[in-house]
Amino acid sequence: MRDEPIELAAALAGFDQLWSPRIVTRVNDYDVRIAKVAGEHVWHVHEHTDEFFLVLDGELRIALRAGAEEREVVLPRGAVFVVPRGVEHRPSSAGGASILMFEPSGTSSVGDRHETVPDHVDATTGHAL
């Protein structure tokens, strides 16, 4: 862990890959991750953990599915949302966004269950800055 402050804008400027989270720091057993996103992620589920989203820039949409029922939440810049464990979801951003996520270290970016992962989505537990 770093012992100096981390400027999120500078950290985001340090990479271009979409849907490829970078680990900014750790808090206890949790990763604080940032990512650039555009287009659609993949429908997926985290069976054992909630997933926290904070939109740093742009707009993020999160589709949520429970059986045949589907809804979407829209997160503008500065908004937060928690996807509860076990809820199938698919983040997306038409115009692109920068996001911060908070989840247990080792959590896969495509969850415990997911559809086929497209080439533009990085199936990872996070990359170092």
From TrEMBL:
This is Cupin. Residues 36-97 form the Cupin type-2 domain. Residues 105-129 are annotated as: Disordered. Residues 111-122 have a biased composition (Basic and acidic residues). Pfam families: Cupin_2. SUPFAM superfamilies: RmlC-like cupins. It comes from the Bacteria.
